[in-house]
């Protein structure tokens, strides 16, 4: 099993986990947006722990959560999007801090 196989397994597990979490929240009348946020946070944390590409998994997770909310309705999509805006901003800050910055020269 190669690295790409493991990556695909992680994406598949993420997809299934987020879809199940969002659907399960809707089934028991829980706050879908909060459950989606917690599930996305969990995926990001797990990805970080295994040394995966956090930024890429965050993007995948957010898209899956929004798609899963779409099976519930427009109100759920809006709530999930609003809740996940902070995740996107946080990931961008982390990526900016981790990437080397171009040196600027002062004349």
Summarize this structure as a short list of keywords or feature phrases.
107 residues; mainly alpha; 0% strand
Description:
There is one protein chain. With 107 residues, the protein is mainly α. It is globular and about 35 Å long.
* Succession of helices and strands: HHHH
Distance between the termini: 53 Å
The average pLDDT score comes to 80
- Unreliable segments of 5+ consecutive residues: none
Overall helicity: over 70%
SSE inventory with pairings:
Layout: H1 3-27, H2 32-49, H3 54-70, H4 74-98
Provide a quick synopsis of the model.
It contains four helices and no strands. With 107 residues, it is mostly helical.
